[in-house]
Amino acid sequence: MLHCGLEYSLKEKINPCFLHNRGGIFFCNMFKIGLFGRGKLGQQIIRLSSDYSCEIVEIEKAQILIDATSRECTIVHIQKAMELNLPIIVATTGWYDQLNEAKKLVESHDGFCLYSPNFSSLVQKMIRLAPHFQSQGLKVSVLEKHHSKKRIPPLEPLYK
């Protein structure tokens, strides 16, 4: 399934924490993430991964994949995830002209892909509220601004 937004829970697809009882003490294994991309977002994921019981591993050893690259790579990374039968989170912007291709790819493998134009909770709320505002006769569009060092800014508005 191809899902947009944060409202979907990955718990149905994978369980990131496997508890083992060793002598009355429970241990939680590290959640293994395969990461595409080592730019600003990729570096942030790497930096924070251990704080959330996650470990960055080789793609083939992962439990889930995250694409934090560029629009030119997204479909290739989704294809790789489907070949490995792994769920993927796409945190890349500007690839939405390929959304139909991604949907067909994910559905043909009975796979899972979660994407969003922006994963911040405020932006998610704005995207969900925009249709309500439009139904009230207001003209709404959500534009995304990035830090000045973003290599490739998105091509389209988040919501129009």
List keywords for this structure.
six-stranded parallel beta sheet; 2 domains; 160 residues; two-stranded antiparallel ribbon; Rossmann fold; 4 helices; single chain; alpha/beta; globular
Task: Explain this structure.
With 160 residues, the protein is α/β, with parallel strands linked by helices. The chain folds into two domains: 26-115, NAD(P)-binding Rossmann-like Domain (Rossmann fold); 119-160, no CATH class. Helix content is 28%, strand content 19%. The chain is built from four helices and eight strands, in the order ββββαββαβαβα. It has helices at 40-49, 74-83, 99-108, 121-135; strands at 2-4, 19-22, 25-28, 31-36, 54-57, 64-67, 88-90, 113-115. The strands form two sheets. The protein has a six-stranded parallel β-sheet, sandwiched between helices. Mean pLDDT is 75; it is low at 6-27.
Short description:
The chain is α/β, with parallel strands linked by helices and 160 residues long.
Provide the fold topology.
Elements: E1 2-4, E2 19-22, E3 25-28, E4 31-36, H1 40-49, E5 54-57, E6 64-67, H2 74-83, E7 88-90, H3 99-108, E8 113-115, H4 121-135
Helix pairs in contact: 2-3
Number of strands: 8
Name the structural class. alpha/beta
Q: What is the CATH topology descriptor of the largest domain?
A: Rossmann fold
Under the CATH scheme, the architecture of the largest domain is 3-Layer(aba) Sandwich
Radius of gyration based on Cα positions: 17 Å
Beta-strand percentage range: 15-25%
The ordered H/E elements are EEEEHEEHEHEH
**Poorly predicted ranges (pLDDT <50, ≥5 residues)?**
6-27
Instruction: Tally the helices.
Output: 4
Q: Distance N terminus to C terminus?
A: 24 Å
CATH superfamily of the largest domain: NAD(P)-binding Rossmann-like Domain
- Name the shape in a single word: globular
Number of domains: 2
Strand order of the largest sheet: 1-8-7-6-4-5
User: What is the highest CATH level, the class of the largest domain?
Assistant: Alpha Beta
Average pLDDT works out at 75
Major sheet, described briefly? Answer: 6 strands, parallel
* Helix residue percentage: 25-40%
